[in-house]
From TrEMBL, chain A:
<keyword id="KW-1133">Transmembrane helix</keyword>
<feature type="transmembrane region" description="Helical">
    <location>
        <begin position="50"/>
        <end position="69"/>
    </location>
</feature>
<protein>
    <recommendedName>
        <fullName>ER membrane protein complex subunit 6</fullName>
    </recommendedName>
</protein>
<dbReference type="InterPro" id="IPR008504">
    <property type="entry name" value="Emc6"/>
</dbReference>
<dbReference type="GO" id="GO:0072546">
    <property type="term" value="C:EMC complex"/>
</dbReference>
<keyword id="KW-0256">Endoplasmic reticulum</keyword>
<dbReference type="InterPro" id="IPR029008">
    <property type="entry name" value="EMC6-like"/>
</dbReference>
<feature type="transmembrane region" description="Helical">
    <location>
        <begin position="89"/>
        <end position="107"/>
    </location>
</feature>
<keyword id="KW-0812">Transmembrane</keyword>
UniProtKB/TrEMBL annotation, chain B:
<dbReference type="GO" id="GO:0072546">
    <property type="term" value="C:EMC complex"/>
</dbReference>
<dbReference type="InterPro" id="IPR053279">
    <property type="entry name" value="EMC_subunit"/>
</dbReference>
<dbReference type="InterPro" id="IPR018937">
    <property type="entry name" value="MMgT"/>
</dbReference>
<protein>
    <recommendedName>
        <fullName>Magnesium transporter</fullName>
    </recommendedName>
</protein>
<dbReference type="GO" id="GO:0034975">
    <property type="term" value="P:protein folding in endoplasmic reticulum"/>
</dbReference>
<dbReference type="Pfam" id="PF10270">
    <property type="entry name" value="MMgT"/>
</dbReference>
<feature type="transmembrane region" description="Helical">
    <location>
        <begin position="32"/>
        <end position="57"/>
    </location>
</feature>
<keyword id="KW-0472">Membrane</keyword>
<comment type="similarity">
    <text>Belongs to the membrane magnesium transporter (TC 1.A.67) family.</text>
</comment>
Length: 109, 122
């Protein structure tokens, strides 16, 4: 798909790629902490908590796809699956676990 | 767009605070019943509102293909010139669009000669 000829005809703008990755990363880390608050308050434990996080991340991906990428993911991301749908999902997980355990302890202790 | 995202975030934060406080108060009751349904719904609604607000508040994505990106910058050049702040991204086709004409060497010589003559008379 993205062979050398394709890249020679329409080169990739590096600063835009960085800007998009930064934007996705910011959204992910903010929403991950938010999901931690929700999961801790709901009193989720072990697997249901992680499933909640993955489902909520998918929802955020859909929101980004609809509102920010305007349905044209390949125009804004080099590889839409890795950069938009799965981008930074596992990077935000540590923030999720942090607020998850904090709010579980605060609300349920 | 800023107004929508700010109001969504504000409403979401209020609902979230209220839901978490309610859950905390519920946990202080002597009964060990599960979290009431209305608190759960309020919490999930707050999270949804905050998600939409955060996504809408994030900066616009930029196209990664050079032609699309350059064309967009080129079209928005006039607006950007009025704003006159961000100089990190300029129209990449500027050197093709704005080119100097040939130097009119005769008129330049004439100007110089006039200038020299003027200096001599003063």
């Amino acid at each position: 798909m993205l062979d050398e000829r394709e890249l020679a005809i329409s080169p990739i703008v590096q600063s835009s790629v960085q800007h998009n990755a930064q934007t996705i990363s910011n959204i992910r880390s903010l929403t991950a902490s938010l999901f931690g608050v929700a999961a801790g308050t709901l009193g989720l434990e072990s697997y249901p908590g992680f499933i909640f996080y993955l489902a909520a991340s998918l929802l955020v991906s859909v929101l980004i796809f609809a509102f920010r990428a305007e349905g044209k993911a390949s125009e804004y991301f080099h590889s839409p699956l890795g950069d938009l749908w799965l981008g930074e999902v596992f990077g935000g997980m540590s923030g999720f676990v942090l607020t998850w355990t904090l709010f579980y302890g605060l609300v349920r202790a | 767009m800023t107004l929508i995202s700010t109001s969504l975030n504000g409403l979401g934060l209020v609902l979230l605070t209220h839901a978490v406080y309610s859950a905390h108060e519920h946990s202080l009751l002597p009964t060990t019943a599960a979290l009431p349904l209305d608190i759960t719904i309020e919490l999930l609604a707050a999270v949804l509102l905050l998600c939409i607000g955060i996504v809408l508040a994030s900066p616009d994505l930029k196209p990664i293909k050079w032609s699309v990106w350059g064309g967009k910058l080129s079209r928005e050049e006039h607006k950007a010139a009025e704003k006159a702040g961000d100089v990190t991204e300029r129209d990449p086709y500027e050197q093709l669009d704005v080119r100097r004409g040939f130097l009119d060497i005769r008129s330049k010589r004439q100007d110089f000669a006039d200038w020299v003559r003027e200096g001599a008379t003063k």
